[in-house]
Design brief:
flat; 163 residues; mainly alpha
Amino acid sequence: MNSVLLQVYSEQQQALLGFMLKRVQEIQIAEDLLHDLFIKLQSLEQQADIKYPKAYVYRMANNLVIDHQRRANRAPVVTGDCVEELDVRSPEQTLAYQEQLNIVANALTELPKKTQDVFNMQRIQEVEKKDVAEKMGISVNMVEKHLRRAVQYCREQLIKSER
C-alpha cells in the first residue's frame, strides 16, 4: 500500500471530488470515479520516489475521468453471441475533429522553436511548469507567456479556418 498517495487522497478527497465533478457533470458518476481512484491507490504497490504525489493522484483521477468519457462515447452493439463497443461519433464529427487537430499541429510548427518546446513539454508531455522552466533555463512566468502565445495563436488559426 502506498501510504503517501493515500495520504494525499485523504487530504484532497473533497477537492478531487470537485475536480471530477467539474469534468463529468454528475455527482453520482464523480463519486463512483472517486471510489475507483481510492481502490486503485490501495492496490498500488509501493512506488519508488514519486516526486510529486499530489500531481500523481490528480493525474490518476483525470485518467479515470477520460476513461469514463471514452466509455460514454461508445454504445454496445450485440452481434450474435458477442457484445462489441461501437464509437458513436459520426464520421462528420470525426473528420471535423481531425481537421481541427491538423490546424493546431500546423499552427504549432509556425511558432518560434522555444514556444513550441514549452508547449510540447507542458501540454503534450505534461511536465510541470516549474520543471519546464528549470529545463529550459527560463522563469515560470516566461513558460506561462510562451503557453499563452501558443494557445492564442492556435485559437486564432482555428477561428481563421472557420471563415
